[in-house]
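Final report, Chapter 2: Outcomes

The project's central promise was a pipeline that accepts a single protein chain and returns its three-dimensional structure in a standardized token representation, suitable for archiving and comparison. That pipeline is now operational. To close this chapter, we reproduce one record exactly as it appears in the project archive, with the input sequence first and the structure output second.
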Amino acid sequence: MYDMSVLPERRLSESESCSSLNGCAVCGGKFGLIRYYSWRTALCSKKCVDRFRTRSERDRQWLFRAQVA
């Protein structure tokens, strides 16, 4: 008997595996006429660019504190 609780692994198509084609890396929103980039990451607005840079800076500060300790 085939066990229905275990689904076969599905391969992602090239468009599904690339997050820049699906939407913004920060909020997941759709892209408008202008697409912003920060560190090769596609973003939908300047607001998301600011969020992305803030997160990156926060991660860098945390990593620095972890290396010192």
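Archive annotation: Helices lie at 14-17, 19-22, 46-68.
This record, like all others produced under the grant, will remain available to the consortium after the project formally closes.
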